Amino acid sequence: MKLSIATIALLGSASACGDRHAHHMKKWLGIIPKHETCPNRDTSTDMDNFEFHRVMHREVHNEFIRGWYKDGRKDVTGDKCWGAWMDADKDHFNALFDKAHKGLIWDISHQEIKNAVDEMMDFFFVNLDECAYYHMIYDTYNWCMENPMICMKKKGIMDRIVDNAIPLAGQAINAWTVFTADSMCYSDEEIISEVTSLVHTWADMHSTIIGFEAKWEPEDKTYEKLTFKEMHHNLRELHHSLPHGKCPVLAWFEQFMPAMPTYALSHSEGMHHSPFDMFAMPAMPMPNMDMFKFMMPAMHAPKEHHQAPFAFPMPDFSQFKLF
Length: 323
Fold this sequence. Notes:
By secondary structure, this protein is mainly alpha-helical.
């Protein structure tokens, strides 16, 4: 909720402060090209700063859901989720921030503040409902409650990685190619496409590895109305009730690495050794110090029966008499 409010405030301030603010914001994100290095760049399709951030939020959210749920539909969020209606409804919000940015505090009327707050509340609550943020969080929570061993104990994680090794490798290579591409002269649409491609790939890979399975049905309103604190409490209680087991990654490797003889760290016969003991340093025998006894003075414990815990045995210097 705090992030969403901050995002809406950012959108309003970005739009209100004009091209100069847009330039600095995009430069801070590392996505604005320098005109001297991109003389042939087509700027006819560039968006203003408010629209750029709005479209970016919409596409990132849409692609995350498509990847997380493995939904093949192109648009899963609908037109109102960070939709174009925000561009038309930002006038009062824009005017308020423009005056505040110029320092014209006393020129802001009470009605302007009310209109701007109304728009901000519409931005927040309409997007909260239309984008179905809570529905996405609840689906993940519900899946975790129904599959605690997979969700919390990572049961079968290595099998999923092996079974999907080729697709995962392809996605990783594609993500690296997109990430390392020179986007200095990209248009706004190409920049958004690049970011959303990375988001979609990460969400798809992550849901595959952890084993998340659910269907995106935001129109279904039958889910529980829980607070995040209640979700956290329920998940924690369920986690504490699960049996403690071996790390699934270690258990998977042990299936393919038979126990091998290694340097014994104990003289006991039949002692079990992990197959990973092959990587352990061998036990080094301690040198025999008896040969040095003639060089060391005799050591005798003190005769006091009630010895202080910090008392140390003192050497007998009687053999070193000078006369």
